[in-house]
Each structure stands twice: as structure tokens, then as C-alpha cells.
Amino acid sequence: MRRTPRHGWLGQSAGVIASSDAAPPRVSVIGTGYVGLVTGACLAELGQHVICVDMDEERVAMVRRGESPIHEVGLPELLARHVGRRLDATTDLRWAVQSTDVTLITVGTPFADNQIDLRFVRQAAAQIGRALRTKASYHVVAVKSTVVPGTTDETVLPIIERESGRRAGSDFGVGVNPEFLTEGQAVRDFLDPDRIVIGAIDDRTTERLTGLYRAFESATWIRTNNPTAEMIKYASNALLATAISFANEIGNLCSAVGGVDVVDVMKGVHASDYLSPRINGERVTAPIASFLWAGCGFGGSCLPKDVSALAAHGRQRGSPMSLLDAVLRVNERQHEQVLARLRKHFPSLRGVRVTVLGLAFKPDTDDMRESPAIPIVRELIAEGADVRAYDPAVDARTAARMLGVEIARYETLEPAVREAQAIVLVTRWDEFQRVTDLLLDIDAPPLVVDGRRMLDRSRVARYEGIGL
């Protein structure tokens, strides 16, 4: 038995996580996106029986065949190991809920019309409620989707009560279990968590959700109420976005001042004890330091949406989030730094062959949502450039859908570099480290605009970089 910190569970004292011989809860996961599918596969890896639910029949069929519909390191191996054993998938939400003890809601929460769109959360809550109407045993529903503080108690709980005809707290439990997964390393993040956050309406719900994660006793456990758990998720993402925009503002100022390279500046910042503490005489770099590098902006399914939603929520509650508004403004303009460096060398981009290296918003994923590559490609096309792209994970169909136009794509890196008049590096894929070697064989080397400052500029004849 190990005593662990307990964070403000309705003012109660610290609790304990005790080992238990009880069978782990059976789990249904609503939604098979990045969060839902990774959660389901990883819970199966922990020995639990999981049913993933999605309305997309093709997606469900892929999962049941053990095929991953998303590009995520380690996920195909988990599916191959557990599908047909401890992991199943279905379109039948009612059957899944009635066959399990805990239901996790992992549906999307897009940001639209200046507010978070809870349509999918409401639909899931209503369907879960109807499934619980005829279920005799106690069931716990936890929101894992990122929702603004107050959503679970003020929206999800009443819907389930209305549709089930039952009462929260006595007939079923309601909680919040936010995820802290980074696309590209989501499986690793899940199976080696730094924290487990559980919000709940009562101790019975807390205990049921605790049973999902008993393998992670060494993680920091935070048990609290639902709105606090919801806020922890938003505050965590807002901090990361703020760090990125801060570094980008410093980089932009370095460019304006002249004679200053933001890479050198940030190396000096990183050398501080609060980012690189000395442990047993050795310097250890804190993971947050990786967000303090200048680049062409953040994207993805989380940071832009979540920061926008939190800022809008603050305005609606009479507490404007001026800092977060500024963070978003900096990010929205950051891709312009890339285009400005191109225009320094090409007064007109019409007909210029520009290769965009990387379409995904970050490496090790095929996710293009809010990627800086989208506005960059669109503006290049608008100015008449001959735009081509290479990304090792993003397929042609995804690229065309996200860009709104089809562009020429390379299948390998070599021709992408060799045939370009200008290269714009957008995604920090490890493979792109080879660019400097490939340039050595080109008689008239292209201009390289390094949007991630990942290349050794001393090895590139024509180099431009953010913050330089």
C-alpha cells in the first residue's frame, strides 16, 4: 500500500491507492479517434476488457481486423495483440454500455462559432443514458474528451439523468478523466503516465475510475471534482501553447534586431536551473524546454482548439483571457515569417518550384489539423508558386482534403530536395536531417527556409531560418 497525494477532493484528506484482487472494470470507449483508440488499446494492454464504439462502420471494421486507421507509433502492435481477445469494436453503443462497468466518452469537441461544439458529447451522453435505462447494475460514465470547466456537471450529467430516468450518485456515477497524450507518442504517454487526474461526483465514482489505472501507482494521482479536472487539462495545454508563442515572439524580435540568432538565445535560456536542473551533478533538461524553440507555429487537434475554447469561455464568464488571446494572435501570424523569408530571395513566386517538407502538424503522426503547412501552401499557391510536398506519413487523400486542393507530392525525400528551387521545412521529421547531405550533390542548391530550425545552417549554402 502506498500513500499518494490527494488534490482537493471536496476538501477531504489524502487518500490511498491500495492494491486490489478485484477484477478490473470492463470498459466501453465511445469514439475511436486518436484518444479513444489509443485509450482502448492501452487499457487492453493493461489486462482490461475493452469495447470501442464508433458510428463509422468502416472504421470499426478496420479495428476488428486489427488495422489501425491512424498513424500512431506502437498502436498497430497493440491492436494485433489484443483485438479478438481483450479488445473489440462495434457500432452498437447500447450493447457496449450494457456489457461494461465504465464508459469513457472520447468524442471530438471542435471549436466553432467562438465556442466549443458539444454536439458529439451531448449525443454520446444521450445514447449512454438510454442504454442505462434498462441496466440494473451501477455504472460509471467519465468524460475524457476535452471540455470547458462545468460541462460534465452542467451538461453531461443532466442529459444522462433525463435519458436514463435514473439519478446520478445513486444509480450511476459521473466523472472526468482527462488525457495527456501527445500525438506520435500517445501509446508511450498512456503506458508511462506522469499523472492520473480523476474528477468525480463522489467517492464511489472515484474508486471505480481508480480501478482502471492501478498499474500506475508511481504516477502522481490527483483526485478532485469534475470542473477542476476539466480545468487542469485546459491549463496544461494553455501553458504549452504559451511557451511556444513566447519563443516565437522572441525569435521574431531576434530577426528584427539583427545579429542575434534565437537558437543561441534559447540555448542560453535552457541552461537555467529551472529548465535544466542539476541532479547528482548532471544537467537534466526538463521536457517543457522542447516547447521553448522558435518555429513556424503550433497546430494539431488540441492546442489551437483548446486555447481558443478556454479564451472564449473566459469571455463568456466575464474573465477575459488577454494573455491567451495574445498567444493565439502570435500563432496565427507565425507562418508569415516563412513566407517573408521566401520573398527576400524571390520578388515574385510565380512559377517558382517550392517543395514543402512536412504537412503533418508534428512528426510521427499523419494529423494535419491546424498544421502551419496549410496556410503556407495556400498562400504559395495564391502567389502562383509551383508547390510540391513530401511527408512520410500524410497520404494524398488526406493532404487534398485538408488543403482544399491537390498538389504534386513526392514519394521520397531525394527528388523533393533535388528538384526544388526553394525548400520550406515545416515538420520536424527526423528524416529531414538528411537534407544537408542531399544538398551537397546539387550544383545550384535551392534556398532552404528552415521553419523549425532543425538543420545545421553552416552546412546549407542558401539558408533562411525563423529567428535568424
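That was protein one. Protein two is written in the same sequence-then-structure order:
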Amino acid sequence: MRFGSVAIEFLPAVQRIVADGVPDFSRINLVDIVRDVMEIEHIEVIEITMEMEHMVPGSITPEVISQLADLKDELGHSYTVHLPLWSIELATFNDFVRSGSVESVCHSIKMAEPLEPDAYVLHATGALAAEYTRNNYSEIMNLLVCGYMTSFAMKSVEEIMSKTEIDPRKLALENVEFPFDFTRDIVDEHGTGICFDTGHLLTKQSGDESIIDFYRKHRDRIVEVHLNDGIDTRTPGKYEDHLAIGKGELPVRDFLLELKKDGFKGPLIFELTTEEVIESLDEIRKVVPEVLGGL
């Protein structure tokens, strides 16, 4: 199995940037960060969060992308890319915002091309769509609203594919805080891939199936897994996800053995801090050593 990690999470990034209460963006060097993460045993894939280009000026430039590509040749790892999601809403009915969101995503896809990513993770719906799902609508009204927003997301994905000529299978739509049955309609319409975030499902953000049932239902299109734990708090908008493996309700052994049985070749990316990645790998080694080359 190919385990991987995000290059850097939000809070560790802030901690690097701020020194004595003063932000210094030059303290973020993505190439050095990737090199450090690649020293973790069993990590073979790095996910680059393209949001960093906007959050941390100078952190992702064409020159940095070129250096990251060279590092790939040196260390032998591969990349995935998480496309921008904050301030992005591909499902909005406001066409000014929707069009700008499409342009931002297309920009990131084109910038990341030299990395030859295994997958480009996309949130087809964003915070606005999630907010609507939390409203206490009737079942019929909820279906109408979700269908309406899905129609705009469908159009956005079509435009992204047309403008970038991306391999549809590499555009991995993630299960986020939105009913996944609607997202699956977009997947089927445009032939895209899926990024399965285990923590999002465990916390019921995208549906109420079990981890195994979701995987079996959608494995024909799953090209990447965001592997993190979660706890269902049963409180909309209050999620305990992105936990280290073993800290939540993930059926670790059953799920990983299911992937192993299927010969799943896609990356399993920890969206965790470096310490949590190491903790997660230790838990996996203890619970299901088969997937790490153990007995």
C-alpha cells in the first residue's frame, strides 16, 4: 500500500510562520518541508495543498513547483494535489463567485502539472452548500436545494475539465459536508474519480453508510483515500474528524484488509500533523501489520 501525507497542515504552518508574534512568510520552505516528511518510514506520497499559494505568499511559485518536481526525481516519491477549497464555491448560484472559483481551480491544476500528480482532489461543493445542508428543511425541500446546488457544481466541473483538459479520472471529487449521492451524480456525468475521506464519512458529513459499505459502493471510482479517524458527535457542524488513526471509530483492520484484498493502488493520504502521521502508522503496524510488510 502507498501511504502518504500532506506536506504541512494549517496549524503547523502558522506556527512556522509566526515568530515572537510577528508573521514571517519566508519561514515556509515547501521543498524542505517535503524532504522532512519523506523521512517518515512508509511515506511514499506527498499531497501538496494548493491553497498555500494564496495563504502564504511566495510558498508556491512556478520555481517552487520545479524544485518539487526535481525532488521527486531525487527521492522517488509521487505527488497528489489538493485544489483550493477555502473561499471557493463551485456550487453557488452567484455566477460571479462560481466563475472565479472555476478560474482559481484551473490555475492551480495548470500550475501543478509539472508534478505529474496521481490525483487532483476537488471539493465540488463548499461552505455555502454545507450550510444549506444543516438547515432544518423538510425532506422534499432538502432534495430540491441539494439538487439545485448540484446543477451548478456539475457545470463548474464541466468547465474545469474543458479549460484544463485534465484526465477526468485524476479529478478526484471528495466526499465532503454534502449528501454524497448528489456528488456521485457529478462523478457519473463527467467520469471523474473519487477521493474517499474516511473521517468525513465517520462523522456523517456525506452520508450514513459504514466505511466498508461506502468503499464497496464507490470503489469503481475511488482513486485516493484521505485516511483519518473520526467520531460521530451527532451534532451538525461539530465534527471530530482528522484524528490520528486509532483515536476514533475507524474499523482500521477491516478497512485496510479490504483495500489490500482489492489490490487498491491509489495513495492513502494522512491529513494530519507529522506527529499524528507517525502515531497513525504505529497504530496500523500494531493492528494490521500485513499492509506494512509485517507478518
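The CA atoms of residues 289 and 295 lie 6 Å apart. Keep this in mind for the problem set.
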